[in-house]
Specification:
Oligomer: single chain
Radius of gyration: 22 Å
CATH class of one domain: Mainly Alpha
CATH topology of one domain: Serine Threonine Protein Phosphatase 5, Tetratricopeptide repeat
Distance between the termini: 44 Å
Strand content: under 5%
Helix content: over 70%
Largest sheet: none
CATH architecture of one domain: Alpha Horseshoe
Length: 431
């Protein structure tokens, strides 16, 4: 598909027990998803492995046929999606580089494929160079415009992104509609974003396209969650799993509903453990750490964070987890400087409001409240509406004694606790 990423005294223990015995409305039912947690086979994965073997055999027998490289690379990219194993993404990159070298970087398809690989690696500036070159060649310009939109959004070049989006306008095109939804979500118009996602979903269903249905169901589930439509979100994660029983993204979405909405930490942990059997990525360790922290189990929370950094050390994830690293380092006075360093790297790599928020937050945690406020006012305020960033803004305003602005944000944040996570309930009350 072209479109084709969260400490123990007796008193604290009692507090936690009280909070968890008063859950919100029950939405999930383990009977809906238990079978998907116990899936022992992955037909799509097995088929992809067979395809790799087939095409690698053909290429070894005829190395002149460089077109095979792109096919094999696409299969390794699929393996990365199935398993979360970063090495598959890197292997796909190597194959795509060979394919582009064989064509002197003049094949639009190979250029776009390598650009998408770099997007997955968060190497956005390199992806932009390739996307521009693909467009300049002249073949398949609409597809190149779609890719340019994707890259420009990641880089915070929103005017350019909008121009590329408008150049691909087609209200009957799935790719256009999902990008239009992303643009409206970026502007803070979630209701409109959902309407366009629903239109895209209908196209996927009319075409009975499995890949498009899986993508649209799982992604619209996220949008519904952001809008507080938890039941709709849950229903669409289940719809995803009925088509793709091994979909780790949908299972993680259900785990979040169980944890954040229902406050059932034991069930959330059971789901995550099931996911890890076939799709093991560092972010799952951070979710386990967040759950342990909510349970006021400081030792486990710290242990999962240690496991997370150990996982990053074992495999080179590049800049893919910079955001998480900066936020973690900013919470420890011994690593403030490292948080600031990573935030500056992110601003250099992708000068988006989200990156500047990391920088402002790092300065705040370091004690430089004035610099944090200046960056936030200049680069963040009114440019993004993501709840975590709104919370950072409230904390920055509070540190600078701008309490009127804190009050206005607090009311908004109170309606975003599901998205933020249970721990933020007490944090928002303290604003």
């Amino acid at each position: 598909m072209n479109a084709t990423i969260k400490i123990l005294t007796v008193f604290l223990g009692i507090t936690f027990l009280v909070s968890c015995t008063n859950p919100k409305k029950q939405i999930t039912d383990s009977k809906d998803y238990n079978a998907f947690l116990e899936v022992k086979e992955n037909e799509d994965l097995d088929f992809t492995l067979q395809e790799i073997k087939f095409w690698e055999t053909k290429y070894k027998a005829d190395t002149i046929q460089k077109s095979y490289l792109g096919i094999i690379a696409s299969k390794y990219s699929a393996l990365f999606q199935f398993t979360g194993n970063i090495n598959h993404l890197y292997h796909a990159e190597k194959l795509l580089i060979l394919a582009n070298e064989a064509r002197n970087y003049n094949s639009v398809g190979s250029l776009r494929a390598l650009a998408r690989n770099y997007i997955s690696q968060h190497r956005f500036k390199e992806a932009l160079v390739l996307a521009k070159k693909a467009f300049s060649i002249g073949e398949g310009r609409i597809e190149s415009k779609k890719l340019l939109f994707d890259v420009q959004m990641e880089l915070g070049n929103y005017n350019e992104a909008l121009m590329n989006l408008e150049a691909t306008k087609d209200m009957n095109d799935f790719d256009y509609l999902i990008r239009l939804a992303k643009w409206n979500d970026h502007k803070g118009d979630l209701d409109t974003a959902i309407r366009f996602m629903e239109k895209a979903k209908k196209i996927a269903e009319q075409e009975n396209n499995k890949l498009l249905k899986v993508w649209s169901y799982s992604n619209i589930a996220d949008f519904y969650g952001h809008a507080g439509r938890i039941q709709d979100s849950y229903d669409h994660y289940i719809m995803t799993l009925k088509i793709d029983p091994n979909n780790a993204y949908a299972k993680k979405g259900i785990a979040w509903i169980v944890f954040s909405h229902e406050r059932n930490t034991q069930e959330a942990k059971r789901i995550i453990t099931a996911i890890e059997k076939s799709h093991n990525t560092p972010d799952l360790l951070l979710l386990k750490s967040e759950i342990a922290s909510f349970e006021q189990n400081k030792l486990d929370a710290e242990k999962y964070q240690e496991d997370y950094f150990e996982s990053l050390a074992k495999k080179n994830y590049g800049a893919m987890y910079n955001k998480y690293n900066a936020l973690i380092y900013a919470d420890n006075q011994l690593t403030f400087d490292r948080a600031l360093e990573i935030a500056k790297e992110e601003v250099d790599h992708r000068p988006t409001p989200e990156s500047f928020d990391l920088l402002a937050w790092a300065y705040l945690k370091k004690g430089d409240t004035k610099n944090a406020l200046a960056i936030a006012n200049d680069k963040v305020v009114g440019k993004t509406f993501e709840p975590h960033i709104q919370y950072h803004l409230a904390m920055i305003y509070k540190a600078n004694n701008q309490l009127d602005k804190v009050a206005s944000l607090k009311k908004e944040l109170e309606s975003s606790i599901y998205e933020l996570g249970p721990e933020f309930e007490s944090k928002i009350k303290e604003l």
